[in-house]
RNA sequence: GUGGUUGUAGCUCAGCUGGUUAGAGCACCGGUUUGUGGUACCGGGGGUCGUGGGUUCGAGCCCCAUCUUCCACCCCA
């Protein structure tokens, strides 16, 4: 016999967990649909060359590769000068790392049929060969919405609104962090890091974690000149997302790049009045994925938890590697598994998630089965309630126990007395209240 | 990928410096009550102590390996 076990960093979802997960998916889906996004699904696996080189060196290492079928040994026996060469000889497929790149691939292949701007949403699992931690899985679900084929800043606004709506619908207070890649570049140049943009962003992205002094140390450890960095603290921080702050920032930076970014941000700011959640301009936000070129977002929990529960940004050249130029796009992604964990921790899933049925019918002996089944049929055909007949007679205690385990709202008790009077005994399992009535009254009650 | 950490019944854990048949609470099952649950009482099942080696007269406890968990770094949802 073999011990049953799971692959590291993966998990099962039982009936209640699936209901909870669907609650998250449904909430997100509803918002996506209300903004006119249409569904798309792509295969779990992609050609390895579709995936590699899109997420940087680190990302490539985290790709799950699929071993080729057939006789790989002769190939493997040849001399390869590197792991990389060997890998590509024995594996030409991989599991998708995110949903954005498969979408770019899809777009490139279907340009002829897509009416721009094209808006799609996609809710599917992705895989990363990461070392698992809390809130960090090797298989997890992303919920993406992207708009491509337009540079309109209305899309940025929609992203912000969708973040706001989803988290507000889930009763999960968050802070939406907003930044602009060009603003970040302008700041980098202003602080003397021209040509060292990557190292600069990697360092300042850790601001909230290691603090200002930590960032200085990090930069120095990479032999970067931090002489102009002393006035950076007031520049790399979170600002209220208001026009006054934007104007001040523009005046401090006085560069073309900064002005472009501020213009975008001001326009977006002009499009809305009130959100349920907080939003800040966070100039220390530097999303790692290198394909972003405009606005970038990250949604963080107001209290504790993981790094971020949702993120996104604008990218200009994602389809270019597939031969399709000048398609600007913007997309966001919700991390369903992290959201699941937080909602669980904070006990924010609605009560009915654990309800397996609304009504349990309890037949006392075999003679009443047909009456019980008839009652069930009536309930199913005439009400919205789900209904289940306990498939074995006897022991009311046992049956009521079962009803509790299923979190049912009503138990309908049917014995020979009830059949004789052509009625049922219905018990409200929350209040304990119980009364007898005929089937017409029962349907009326359950409607 | 680097450094650390964890692993005892379904769950949360106890188990003294290695010493006879490994414990508790909760959960589960049965009964008290063969037609009334979620609160009471009585009883019961269930563990090759993550796995594989080793040291020892003897290992849940020590050593090695491996897997798993969680944490930090890296990166990220």
How big a fraction of the residues is strand?
15-25%
Main sheet summary: 9 strands, mixed
What share of residues is helical?
A: 25-40%
- Helix/strand-derived class? alpha+beta
CATH fold type of the domain at 174-302 = BirA Bifunctional Protein, domain 2
Distance between the termini: 51 Å
What's the CATH C level of the domain at 174-302? Alpha Beta
Strand line-up across the major sheet: 1-5-6-12-11-10-7-9-8
What are the low-pLDDT stretches, counting only 5+ consecutive residues below 50?
none
In DSSP terms, counting alpha (H) and pi (I) runs of 4 or more, how many helices?
17
Oligomer: single chain
Gross morphology: elongated
Number of E-type strands: 17
Q: Would you identify the CATH H-level superfamily of the domain at 174-302?
A: Bira Bifunctional Protein, Domain 2
SSE topology:
Blueprint: H1 15-34, E1 38-39, E2 45-47, H2 48-51, H3 56-61, E3 65-66, H4 73-77, H5 83-90, E4 93-95, H6 100-110, E5 118-127, E6 139-148, H7 154-169, E7 174-180, H8 181-190, H9 197-204, H10 207-221, E8 238-240, H11 243-253, H12 256-269, E9 278-282, E10 292-301, E11 310-315, E12 329-335, H13 336-345, E13 359-363, H14 369-382, E14 387-389, H15 396-405, E15 410-414, H16 416-421, E16 424-428, E17 434-437, H17 439-446
Parallel strand pairs: 1-5, 7-9, 13-14, 13-15
Antiparallel strand pairs: 2-4, 3-4, 5-6, 6-12, 7-10, 8-9, 10-11, 11-12, 15-16, 16-17
Helix pairs in contact: 1-7, 1-13, 8-12, 9-10, 11-12, 14-17
This protein binds one RNA strand of 77 nucleotides through residues 3, 5-6, 8, 55-56, 58-59, 61-62, 98, 126, 128, 130-137, 140-143, 202, 287-289, 306-311, 333-339, 362, 364, 394-404, 411, 413, 415, 417, 425, 427, 429, 432, 434.
């Amino acid at each position: 016999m073999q011990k049953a076990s799971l692959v590291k960093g993966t998990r099962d979802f039982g009936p209640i967990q699936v209901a909870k997960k669907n609650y998250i998916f449904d909430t997100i889906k509803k918002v996506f649909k209300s903004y006119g996004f249409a569904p798309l699904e792509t295969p779990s696996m992609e050609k390895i060359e579709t995936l590699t080189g899109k997420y940087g060196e680190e990302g490539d290492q985290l790709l799950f590769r699929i071993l080729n079928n057939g006789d790989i040994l002769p190939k493997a026996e040849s001399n390869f000068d590197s792991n990389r060469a060997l890998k590509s000889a024995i594996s030409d497929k991989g599991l998708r790392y995110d949903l954005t790149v498969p979408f770019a691939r899809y777009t490139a292949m279907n340009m002829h049929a897509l009416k721009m701007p094209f808006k799609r949403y996609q809710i599917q699992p992705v895989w990363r060969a990461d070392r698992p931690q809390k809130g960090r899985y090797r298989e997890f679900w992303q919920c993406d919405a992207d708009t491509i084929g337009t540079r309109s800043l209305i899309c940025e606004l929609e992203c912000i609104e969708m973040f706001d709506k989803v988290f507000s619908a889930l009763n999960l207070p968050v802070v939406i962090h907003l930044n602009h890649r060009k603003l970040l570049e302008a700041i980098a140049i202003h602080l003397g890091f021209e040509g060292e943009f990557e190292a600069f962003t990697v360092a300042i992205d850790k601001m909230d974690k290691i603090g200002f002094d930590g960032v200085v140390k990090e930069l120095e450890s990479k032999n970067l000149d931090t002489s102009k960095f002393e006035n950076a603290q007031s520049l790399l921080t979170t600002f209220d997302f208001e026009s006054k702050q934007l104007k001040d920032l523009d005046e401090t930076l006085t560069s073309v790049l900064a002005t472009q970014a501020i213009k975008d941000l001001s326009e977006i700011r002009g499009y809305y009045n009130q959100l349920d959640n907080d939003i800040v301009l966070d100039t220390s936000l530097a999303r790692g994925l290198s394909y972003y070129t405009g606005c970038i977002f990250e949604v963080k929990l107001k209290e504790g938890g993981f790094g971020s529960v949702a993120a996104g940004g604008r990218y200009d050249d994602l389809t270019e590697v597939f031969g399709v130029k000048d398609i600007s796009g913007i997309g966001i992604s919700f991390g369903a598994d992290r959201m699941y964990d937080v909602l669980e921790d904070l006990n924010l899933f609605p009560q009915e998630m654990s309800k397996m049925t609304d009504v349990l019918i309890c037949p006392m002996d075999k003679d009443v089965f047909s009456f019980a089944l008839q009652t069930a049929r009536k309930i199913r055909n005439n009400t919205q309630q789900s209904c289940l007949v306990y498939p074995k007679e006897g022991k009311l205690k046992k049956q009521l126990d079962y009803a509790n385990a299923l979190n049912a709202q009503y138990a309908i008790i049917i014995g020979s007395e009830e059949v004789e009077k052509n009625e049922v005994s219905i018990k409200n399992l929350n209040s304990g209240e119980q009364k007898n009535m005929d089937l017409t009254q029962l349907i009326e009650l359950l409607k």
